[in-house]
Amino acid sequence: MTVTFDLNRLIATRLTEIAEAAWRDHRIMPIGDSDGRVLQIGTAATRERWVCGADHGTGVCGEPLLTHRQTAELLGLLNEDEPVLDPELPVTDVELLDEGLGGFFPGSLIHFSDVGREYRKAQG
Ligand SMILES: [Zn+2]
Fold first, then answer.
1. Which of 11, 39, 48, 96 counts the most CB atoms within 10 A of its CB?
2. What is the end-to-end Cα distance of the chain in Å, rounded?
3. Domain segments of the chain as ranges
């Protein structure tokens, strides 16, 4: 008997599990590769990969959520550890697939409006 180790299927299964847990626990959802909105700050742009469906007290949020790496890219920061120091909306911890490193790693998602606020703060 031959056992085929299908990495792509393994990854797809894990992504589905993460997506289900993220929706169940946090009301956030991943966006398909080509479906995300293009998010622009200044001259930098990135594509939406997660969306928030939580209610922070004013109805369903609907904002894009950005990883630390996306946030650092948009803000032009070299250090992506704490790209937004004082977010107004909740930051959500979630496992993210890092295709560069080839695995799943804990990450955080930041609301796009908080990234924009941080950008305007930096502009003075
Ligand atoms: Zn939200």
1. 96
2. 66
3. 7-123
Q: Sign of dihedral through CA atoms 10, 62, 89, 36?
A: positive
Helix axes 112-123, 68-75, angle to 10 degrees: 30
Residue 90 CA, ligand 1 centroid: distance in Å: 7
pLDDT in tens, 63-76: 999 999 999 999 98
pLDDT digits (tens, 9 = 90+) for 13-60: 999 999 999 999 999 999 987 899 999 999 999 999 999 999 999 999
Asked if residue 1 has pLDDT above 70, the reply is no
Rounded to the nearest angstrom, the gap between the alpha carbon of residue 54 and the centroid of all alpha carbons in its chain is 14
Tell me how far the alpha carbon of residue 37 lies from the centroid of ligand 1, in angstroms. Answer: 16
Ligand 1 centroid, distance to 15 Cα (angstroms)? 21
Return d(Cα 124, Cα 122) in angstroms, integer.
5
69 alpha carbon – ligand 1 mean position (Å): 19
Stated as kind and residue range, the H or E segment containing 32 is: none
CA distance 38 to 47: 5
